[in-house]
């Protein structure tokens, strides 16, 4: 009995530690984007990445905004680039013979897909009318300035710029929230990013696990990186930006603790462009969000309790301690005096069997009669 009570004391100590950890987690700052709160206990935040799936057409971009809104996404995101800031002249002038090319040179191709500032403002206003948040990835310093000036709810820094320290340092000094993808980085590089944000006392940022492969093979997804990030950066929001086919991996990412999910959205996965094949159709995006909402409900809290839904099964099959033979008041109870059975009424729970051994019986008991709490004097 002493060993049993000692083990229970150890469990109580462990439970106390878990409760303290839960209290610590409860104090972790949330990330506020627009009217959305991101963090434990709140819905997963979904970003529908339009990217350049608009084919350089503002009307297609508007249709994608409509599709994202109807799918349940919280935000639509484009990409903003000043080509001369991002690329060298040599890169812009090189021939681009890809099946996905929109121009003779890489520069012509990129320019075809780039919206003007006026078009960005038009799309921002359109998204506002549709009641969905609107932002973009800043791919250079000028583009960052533009996005900050048009008052986006957050700025995204894509994996392609996750080593652009100039850009990141400037973003870290802004007041707007920053969400940064970490594709193509090692963990050592990710820690350097985190140090930059901390240097400027910026705590309203999030890190997204990402693999920059289109589409990403399952064996390269490495969702456990989400757990790594959560353990090493416990005071910031961790999310997932996915480029894999389908929705299963992105759903699983939320179970691993991702609180932001970013996926590309398209109207046609067979369209010209390298991102379409790993993008989600609107109905897939909606299905992903619906499933995540159900999973969030199912995940519940880290408290193991007897829930109301179990009452019916307990009343029917729950086991209780009963007398194995007739006993008299004053008997000191031995193990062989007791059995654990389904009985009525419910007496002392079978889990407390060892606590009852050694107790003194206060009233007579017949065989198979339930042992009630007030029937015994404990040691």
From TrEMBL:
CDD domains: SAF_NeuB_like. InterPro entries: AFP_Neu5c_C_sf, Aldolase_TIM, PseI-like, PseI/NeuA/B-like_N, SAF, SAF_AFP_Neu5Ac, SAF_PseI/NeuA/NeuB. It comes from the Eukaryota. PROSITE patterns: AFP_LIKE (PS50844). Residues 320-379 form the AFP-like domain. This is AFP-like domain-containing protein. It comes from Cryptolaemus montrouzieri.
């Amino acid at each position: 009995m002493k060993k049993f009570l000692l083990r229970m004391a150890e469990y109580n100590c462990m439970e106390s530690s878990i409760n303290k950890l839960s209290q610590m987690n409860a104090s972790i700052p949330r990330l506020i984007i627009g009217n959305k709160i991101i963090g434990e206990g709140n819905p997963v935040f979904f970003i529908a990445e339009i990217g350049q799936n608009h084919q350089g057409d503002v009307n297609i971009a508007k249709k994608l905004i409509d599709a994202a809104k109807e799918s349940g996404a919280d935000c639509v995101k484009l990409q903003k680039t000043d080509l001369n800031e991002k690329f060298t002249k040599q890169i812009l002038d090189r021939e681009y013979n890809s099946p996905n090319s929109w121009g003779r040179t890489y520069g012509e191709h990129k320019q075809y897909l780039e919206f003007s500032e006026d078009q960005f403002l038009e799309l921002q206003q359109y998204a506002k009318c549709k009641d969905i948040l609107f932002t973009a990835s800043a791919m250079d310093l000028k583009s960052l300035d533009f996005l900050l000036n048009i008052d986006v709810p957050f700025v995204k820094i894509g994996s392609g710029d996750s080593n652009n320290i100039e850009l990141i340092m400037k973003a870290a000094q802004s007041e707007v929230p920053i969400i940064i993808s970490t594709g193509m980085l090692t963990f050592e590089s990710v820690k350097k990013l985190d140090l930059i944000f901390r240097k400027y006392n910026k705590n309203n940022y999030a890190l997204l696990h990402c693999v920059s492969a289109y589409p990403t093979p399952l064996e390269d997804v490495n969702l456990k990186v989400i757990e790594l990030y959560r353990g090493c950066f416990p005071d910031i929001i961790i999310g997932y930006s996915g480029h894999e086919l389908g929705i299963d991996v992105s759903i699983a990412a939320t179970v691993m603790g991702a609180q932001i999910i970013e996926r590309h959205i398209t109207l046609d996965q067979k369209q010209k462009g390298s991102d379409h094949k790993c993008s989600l159709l609107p109905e897939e995006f909606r299905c992903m969000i619906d499933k995540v909402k159900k999973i969030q409900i199912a995940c519940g809290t880290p408290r193991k309790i007897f829930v109301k839904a179990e009452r019916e099964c307990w009343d029917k099959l729950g086991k209780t301690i009963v007398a194995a033979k007739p006993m008299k008041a004053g008997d000191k109870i031995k193990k062989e005096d007791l059995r654990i059975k389904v009985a009525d009424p419910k007496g002392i729970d079978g889990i407390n069997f060892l606590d009852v051994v050694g107790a003194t019986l206060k009233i007579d008991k017949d065989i198979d009669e339930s042992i009630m709490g007030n029937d015994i004097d404990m040691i």
